């Protein structure tokens, strides 16, 4: 036989706080919970982390993008092998080491725009791997998120981790989208 557990005053207060934030189902009423006088003041919840850069909203128009562009998560294996072995040349490279996120974002955007204007097809973006025992490499984590944003989807068609002699996990092969 199961024993029913009674809630402590603290548990009842916590549950009442959670229940007040719930949205009742259709045709159901939210039960009332007594207000506790000794309830400590609640701190506002921190804003959730958004890895995407804070971009200004686009102006409303009929279509913000002419067509749906998607970034492929990876370059095809034969193409990557040819880049790695040097049969397909890397047209340009950018090193983002020791840059802040803001300056790296601006530098990468300008670099990819220039590469697209000059008709370059494959470029190398060096982000760094981070420190082994310390920081995990913020640019290594953020650059793929940036490539998924609307700003970079117009510039990048695919990207993949570079081969070991080009920087390994600390660098990316990037295929620049044709104009």
UniProtKB/TrEMBL annotation:
Coiled coil: none
Pfam families: Smr (PF01713)
Domain of life: Bacteria
SUPFAM superfamilies, sorted: SMR domain-like (SSF160443)
Region Disordered: start-end pairs: 26-74
Domain Smr: 94-177
Cleavable signal peptide: none
Database matches in InterPro entries: Smr_dom (IPR002625), Smr_dom_sf (IPR036063)
Designated name of the protein: Smr/MutS family protein
Organism per entry: Fulvimarina uroteuthidis
């Amino acid at each position: 036989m199961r024993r029913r557990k009674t809630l402590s005053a603290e548990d009842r207060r916590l549950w009442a706080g959670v229940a007040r934030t719930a949205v009742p189902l259709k045709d159901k009423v939210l039960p009332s919970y007594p207000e506790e006088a000794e309830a400590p003041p609640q701190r506002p919840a921190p804003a959730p982390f958004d890895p995407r850069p804070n971009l200004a909203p686009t102006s409303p128009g009929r279509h913000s993008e002419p067509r749906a562009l998607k970034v492929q998560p990876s370059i095809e294996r034969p193409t990557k092998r040819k880049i790695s072995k040097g049969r397909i040349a890397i047209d340009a490279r950018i090193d983002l080491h020791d840059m802040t996120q803001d300056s790296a974002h601006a530098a990468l955007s300008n670099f990819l725009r220039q590469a697209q204007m000059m008709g370059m097809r494959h470029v190398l973006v060096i982000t760094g791997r981070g420190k082994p025992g310390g920081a995990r490499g913020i640019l290594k984590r953020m650059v793929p998120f940036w490539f998924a944003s609307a700003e970079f989807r117009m510039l990048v068609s695919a990207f993949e981790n570079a081969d070991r002699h080009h920087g390994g996990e600390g660098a990316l092969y990037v295929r620049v989208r044709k104009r």
